[in-house]
Structures are given as C-alpha cells and as structure tokens.
Amino acid sequence: MVAGAAAGTLALFLVPGCSFSFGGDLVVKKEEVAKQASAGLEKRVGRAPEDVTCEDDLKGKVGESVRCTLTDGGKQLGMTATVKSVDGKKVNMDFKVDDNAGAGSGASADPQPSDSAQPSDPAGADSGASGSVDKAEVARQGKAALAAQVGKQPDAFSCPEDLPAKVGATVRCQLADDDKQYGVTVTAESVVGGKVHMDFKVDETPGG
Q1: Cα–Cα distance between 174 and 168 in angstroms, integer?
Q2: 176 touches 159 (CB < 8 A)
Q3: What percent of the chain has pLDDT over 70?
Q4: How far apart are CA 77 and CA 99, in angstroms?
Q5: Quick one: pLDDT at residue 208?
Q6: What's the rounded Cα separation, in Å, for the pair 141 and 159?
Q7: pLDDT: which is higher, 146 or 22
Q8: What are phi and psi of 39, to 5 degrees?
Q9: Model-level pTM?
Q10: pLDDT tens per residue across span 42-97
C-alpha cells in the first residue's frame, strides 16, 4: 500500500511545486500542496494514495510548513509539507511522512525534516553472503535515488567501502556533478529478508 510504503521507506521526499501570488504574498494553495504530495508519492511508489488533504495554504517562505493527512487502504498518516527553497515564483517543498499511522493532523509535534536528505531506496539492495552491500551496489542505488529525486543522474557516484547490512551502519560516498564534489552519507535504515534499505543524505556544500 502507498501508506505503508510512505511510512517505511519514503519518509522524506522533495517535490518542486507551483505557487500563486496574492496581494504580493507568495502562497501555495492547500489543494496544490496536496496535489504535489500525491504526485510525489505516485512517482516514488508507483501509484497515488487514495486521498491527501492539507489544513491550510502554504506561505512561500523558506521554513514555512503545513500539516497534511495521507489516506490509503483504510489507514491515515500525518505528513508535514515544508518550504525548502523559493526560486522566483516556484516554491520547492518537501514532504515528511509521520512514522506512525493514525497521527494525522492531531500529531503532538511536527517532525523536523532534514535539510538535505534524499529519498530512501524503495527496492533495497541484497546484502549477500558477506553480510554487507557491495560498494558498487551502494553507488548504483545512490545514483538511482538521485535520478528519481532531481530527474537526472549525477556525473559520478563512488563509495570507498561496502555498507554493513546492519541498521544504523553508515558509509561516506562521493558524488560529482557539474564539476563539483559532494559528500554523501549512506545509512542502512532497515534490513528485511536480506535486503538493506538505504537512505542517502547529500552534504549541503560541495567539498565532501
């Protein structure tokens, strides 16, 4: 189900959203926020949730957020939409899905989104007999995750060592794009049936 996938492997994803201006103030209507969230989830898990609703319009200012509710398969998940950047009339949002079903708009506290997190890989990678994910496979999954995120793969993505198939294990990798080098922290988010689900967090500034 979309709800299960969102909670399990897609806790954070970025979607460029449209924006509207009223009286000089940049505002994304709540219907548009919900539409962008639904489209983002459809892209990540293969189909849209049954319904997404948001409480209020979202101000087009970095750091502004609004609570939404995702409904699918009889389950509800709370979600926070946050403005990550504003480019002219385009507001770029990220959507943080709550960890627990049923939170909805009544959650006691809004989750805090990571500044530059990338989506977890929904398919996972086989750990193999060695109990780790080969560094080449980690790099391949990283490139695929970034391609899904921004629409194109980086020029290069490399990791110096394998990723242990253990929850919380990390490895530092490097990506190159447009003649810039960025460090990437890869974390094993979960290990299920020999498959390691990874999260990729790109450093905010180049240099690695």
Answers
A1: 19
A2: no
A3: 70
A4: 8
A5: 58
A6: 11
A7: 146
A8: -65, -40
A9: 0.43
A10: 777 677 888 899 999 988 888 899 999 988 777 888 888 888 888 877 888 888 88
DSSP string, 50-75: SEEEESS-EESSTT-EEEEEEEETTE
Those residues whose C-beta lies under 8 Å from the C-beta of residue 156, and which sit 6 or more positions away, are 174, 175, 176, 177
User: Among candidates 115, 120, 107, 169, which has minimal Cα distance to 5?
Assistant: 120
Give yes or no for residue 158 having a pLDDT over 90.
yes
